[in-house]
């Protein structure tokens, strides 16, 4: 890339702005991609180039990038109230409406809702509530948390500790002590030679139980999982996985925490990822789709036994020492209520099933013609395409070839935004997408894959 003029937006970005999840050196060399505006499922960069945003930003803008009703809901909420909070018995009125609505639609009976502003705050809140739950029941030593390899739960210290991705730990001396990781239920790469899926599931449950016994069940508070792992490569657990591991967890009085930050609100073709995968959590964390990310808002739903424990904690008159300034912010709440109204009117679950089936069928057809697709997987509008050197043997590409990063660059050049996770290409478009939008993704994906496939064999040889 030619060196940008010194006071261009590109040069100022490199100088003044530290980016999330970005290599600083590569950023200094290639500069930013500056996005300026959005229209439905499309975004436009500062040079006026148009892209299909097939990742809904960060798995989040379910209603696209320019939804008039969400903008109006925010503007009207600002007219009424720029801010109010939920500390010390106070609350904005609309926050009560959202709590009631989430409890009515959520997968946990008789739940209560707690509000925060990010997914990380929501997953960490669940950990603190799990600690209280056990302590109040006379089990204060139950503190450890088990999560899974390749999982993602956020970037704050406890949330990052629960991630199962090396980049979330490496430079930070994480995970914290007491944050353990069990096997990832990847049906493509996980089974050992000759092991069928039910034996694989049994091994996952056995290995979880072995970890619990070795650590001591009296030291373990909770297990956290996304119903379908998003950031680790869109991994759908095999049938029977959650029932098998939940049986182990219940046996040892360990809470089940569901991270619905990506999967919630229709993404997987059901309202909740828990329904898609047969998970029965004691608490769930949600964010992103709750407001289509037009305002930072997240929430936790907690079951009745956890509410009862909290009530007992406060029996001496102490207050619940937890809260965020912007918990239940009236503008975020108004945007979330409007988002949920739109989901209901568009019948988001049925629509996602229809559009997801079209995307999946198209990708399956492309994969059948390609020599470098190992697996197409996912649910609803959350689909991963794993690129491999040899689909017959599942042989992965040499990591030095950076097949996923090549696909990313080629896709961007073609006007398609995807998410490479290693060599798995993630697609998670806005849920408002229609047939024409799906076909546009498919055509750009097809072209990109053909280009990458043409390019890679040469590099494959060069690497040998
Ligand atoms: C499954 C999951 N949980 C938690 C988070 C953290 O959310 P946030 O970035 O809002 O803190 C993310 C973010 O991508 C996520 O994908």
TrEMBL record:
Keyword Lipid metabolism: no
Highest taxon in the source lineage: Bacteria
Keywords recorded for this protein, A-Z: Aminotransferase, Pyridoxal phosphate, Transferase
InterPro entries assigned to the protein according to its UniProt record, in alphabetical order: Aminotrans_3 (IPR005814), Aminotrans_3_PPA_site (IPR049704), PyrdxlP-dep_Trfase (IPR015424), PyrdxlP-dep_Trfase_major (IPR015421), PyrdxlP-dep_Trfase_small (IPR015422)
CDD domains: OAT_like
SUPFAM superfamilies: PLP-dependent transferases (SSF53383)
Keyword Ribonucleoprotein: no
Molecular function as annotated in GO: pyridoxal phosphate binding; transaminase activity
Family: Belongs to the class-III pyridoxal-phosphate-dependent aminotransferase family.
NCBIfam families: PRK06105.1
Protein name in UniProt: Aspartate aminotransferase family protein
Species the sequence originates in: Teichococcus deserti
